[in-house]
Every structure is written in C-alpha cells, then in structure tokens.
User: Fold this.
Amino acid sequence: MEVGFLGLGIMGKAMAANLLRHGFRVTVWNRTLSKCEELVAMGATVGETPAAVVAKCKYTIAMLSDPSAALSVVFDKDGVLEQIGEGKGYVDMSTVDDATSCKISEAVKQKGGAFVEAPVSGSKKPAEDGQLVILAAGDKALYDDMVPAFDVLGKRSFFLGEIGNGAKMKLVVNMIMGSMMNAFSEGLCLADKSGLSPQTLLDVLDLGAVANPMFKMKGPSMLQGSYNPAFPLKHQQKDMRLALSLGDENAVAMPVAAAANEAFKKARSLGLADLDFSAVHEVLKGAGGSA
Assistant:
C-alpha cells in the first residue's frame, strides 16, 4: 500500500517510520525538508510540495501542529486541493477543532475526493510503538481503506460517524489529560510542602484507584525537573483552548479546565512552550512548592 505523509514533527516522524517498517511505500513532505532525511534513509521518497504528494499517492495522511497549519497545507499554493480529486483520499490526523475539520472536508469533497479526520490519543512513545488510539470520522469507505495503516499506527481505531466527532472526542480527551496533569502537579507540590516524600506519593498513587500510565510515566521525570517533549506544552495549551471553546458552544461550565488552561498559559509565558506538557509543574512549584 502506498501512502503520502505530510508533517514530520514528533508524532508524524514516528508514525511515518512505523509505516515504512511495516512495508508501506511512503512519500513524505515537511515544511523543513531536512526533516525528511532520516525517513529517506529508511526507504521513503520525498514530495517537494503537499500537492506533489497527493498527485503521487491515492491516500495521503497529514499530521500537523494546529488548525492554522492544517488549513495552510490544504488551501495554500501547492496545497492538497490542487491535486485531490476522484479516487483519492485525504486523512488528517492533526488535533484541530471541528470547524476546521468541516472546512477541510467540504473543500476536499467539492474536488471529488474523500476525507477522514483521525486525530490520535497518545504521544511520542505510543506513536513509536504503534500504540496510538485513533479517533476517526467522515467517509466510511475511506476509513475502511485506511484500516491496514491504522492497524500499524494504533492499538485501536474508532469510527465515530460524521465529520467533527473525531475532533471533538480528541479535545475532550486532551482536556481531561491537561486537567489531570495540573491536579497531579499540585499534589506533588503539596506533598513536598507538607514534609512528605513526593516519590512515596508516586508509589502510593500507583497502588490505588487513581493509578494510571500518565502518572507512572511522567511522575519520576517531573521530580527530576526533566521535561523532554513527548507532547509539547504549547500543543496541550492549544487543545485546552479549543476544548474550552467547544464548551462555550455547548454551554458547558468547565471551571477545572479553565484553571488548568491558565496554568499552561503561564508556563508558555515563562518560556516552557517547547518542553513537555508536564513542565506545567514548574509553574505550580513556583506558586507554592519546590517538589
């Protein structure tokens, strides 16, 4: 199976590499073309523009940083729309709002192409291990065609119906994750400030009802002040903002998420945007602890 792949950031690079390792023929594009070199060494070919990739491949996947990037790759000069058409499918796995997905979907369908949104739950390590959770919606026939690729990229894929549902589900998931990270950080700081061992707190949490992979994975590095980016904080804050906007649209009060968003915004103002989202811990340490 041949696929195009647009966007080789932390997630996209790992996902495209997985496809190559599993025998897919992959044509890649990235705004900074030098990021393609490692994948070329693995057997990928390079398309000079998104349009060139779509022209070559029946199916094209995009994994981009935010709504602005997702729209740019589709609508700008040499973008997806210049070559999408009958018999071609476009799969956007970026995390965007539902309005962005709907806009892209309408444009692709007007050109005769098929569209699926398929944001993922998971960060760098699950992407490398093919253990993402794929939240797809849109054209069911294209989704079915993409299942072999989704089975390589993820441990499970969900088809959620009409366009927008995948985007909404991903924002809800990431809103919960960001809120949990803030509560976790507050707990680590409170334990430390109260004279308790934060490491012992991690051990206790891991044995109780609130045990979860995020605490287990992130906790030790947070205590060391190490925040190598698996999921950059700037993207987490973007997702909090989009989730809060979704809450506004649906008249859902979200005071916990709103407070968490403020902490991520503060972290961005302190220059932590490109670190892992767990670096919000530094904000909470400064506010009341020194874990």
In short: The chain has a mean pLDDT of 96.
